[in-house]
Amino acid sequence: RPPEIRIAQEKGRQTLSPEDAELAKKQNLCPVTGLSLDSMGGPVPVDVANRRVFVCCKGCIDKLKQDPEPY
């Protein structure tokens, strides 16, 4: 796991399954803000368009779900 995801998990901000942790590691950046997935308490998993995407915070969930195409 990248250090930022491990740190988030250690702080109890977000607990990811091993599979989700691997997906988040590959994604690395929030598609909404362009920031690191751990920059605002994430990674936060979101299921959109039949796939799992991660965002940096709960505030990005609605924006992603409202218009997932650009992301």
Labels describing this entry:
two-stranded antiparallel ribbon; 71 residues; globular; alpha+beta
Structure overview:
With 71 residues, the protein is α+β, with helices and mostly antiparallel strands. The protein is 34% helix and 14% strand. The chain contains three helices and two strands, in the order ααββα. It has helices at 3-10, 18-27, 61-66, and strands at residues 44-48, 51-55. Strands 1-2 form a two-stranded antiparallel ribbon. The longest helix has 10 residues, at 18-27. The radius of gyration is 11 Å and the shape is globular. The protein starts with a helix and ends in a 5-residue tail after the last helix.
Short description, anyone?
The protein is α+β, with helices and mostly antiparallel strands and 71 residues long.
Write the layout of secondary structure elements.
Blueprint (H helix, E strand, L loop, with lengths): L2 H8 L7 H10 L16 E5 L2 E5 L5 H6 L5
Antiparallel strand pairs: 1-2
Strand order of the largest sheet: 1-2
Number of helices: 3
Helix content: 25-40%
Radius of gyration: 11 Å
> Taking all residues together, what is the mean pLDDT?
82
For the secondary structure, the number of strands is 2
Uncertain runs: none
Structural class: alpha+beta
Order of secondary-structure elements? HHEEH
- Major sheet details: 2 strands, antiparallel
Apparent shape: globular
Distance between the termini: 23 Å
Q: What percent of residues are in strands?
A: 5-15%
